[in-house]
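Most newcomers find our protein records easier to grasp once they have seen one. A record pairs a protein's sequence with a compact description of its fold. An example says more than a description, so a record of this kind follows:
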Amino acid sequence: MRNKLTILIAIAAVAGVLAGYLANNLAADAAAAASIAGYFSILADIFLRLIKMIIAPLVFATVVSGIAATGDTKTVGRIGLKAVGWFVTASLVSLTLGMTLANFFQPGANLGLPLPDAGLSTNLKTGGLSLKEFIVHVFPRSIFEAMATNEILQILVFSIFFGVALASLTDKPALTVTRFVDELGHAMLKLTEFVMMFAPVGVFGAIAAAITTQGIGILATYGKFIGTFYASLAVLWVVLIAAGFVFLRGRVFTLISMVREPMLIAFTTASSEAAYPKLMERLERFGAKEHVTALVLPLGYSFNLDGSMVYQAFAALFIAQAYGIEMSIGQQMTMLLVMMLSSKGVAGVPRASLVVVAAVLPTFGLPEAGLLLIMGIDQFLDMGRTATNVIGNGIATAVVAKWEGELGPTTAEPEAEAPGEKPA
């Protein structure tokens, strides 16, 4: 059945809301709700662990195989430069959009909630990497350590070096290794299909746990903030799709349709990693060549976080408005640039956007305690920004493939094929 997994995930999400609502109402107190949520979380944790299990070998195999097949280091460098150029532009647009809409909607004004003492600490680890530390951190001390911790950027760097070295060799052992890596990539994609069968169960657990702990009522309490944030994400989607239309024309709508499933996975689990394998598969079905997808997508997961950029701008200005702190446009723009640079040093950190905001707030005289206002609803905000990160990286990869002349025709999904019909 076409889009069967998407339908199952949607059903699981609705079931998770209902189960979480019942559990929250039946729980005697907050401690009991947290205990029940812990059991729901087991399902989500298992799914996310399965996803994390395949990310490192999948990135390694696809990047090395793509470079070895290309055999051209200049092509690799050119693709990387084009991708980074798109990422920086998209980040600046996203931050500016978040700042503009936060000033327009004023989500923190007249909040009607008690404000935490400005002197309180959130206990978030805000020691982000400096520019020097980040540059050094990009290069792995050990590929096994990088794979064990799922440091995608470090795995990408090693894979590029390994792929270039492999492409420069022509003897029989090198060909054997190349074939092995290529087959490893195919095996990991097949393993991904098996893991994704567990996605509806993981989605159910993630949603049920969040609703059990927070309750649906918190959505009404923070209705203005949540509503205006999602409205801002919707505007960003329009901007991203419009940018994609400039280069892809009408095919951008085909792309959006094809990445609905990874977007839904990202939204319901609030995990970009959970959507990575399926997003890679859909981009290749869309027509982006494997070596382009293998290079651009891992880079995007570290540098192209469009939804997170909007969130960081929105959260910081929400806190400033809640405490009645006026910030000039110049101060806001400076703060956003600092956030953009800081976010590159914490890619892959859980709740990285919160960490970046917490680290930057004191620098601009904003109380770190203001994060306590939004930490309780961050799960619901994280869902939207994660799905937006997925669509941003999908469009970026397709556009770079188009620039490179490496965007072929879209192939049919297996579910859509007639009986006995062979794939294109």
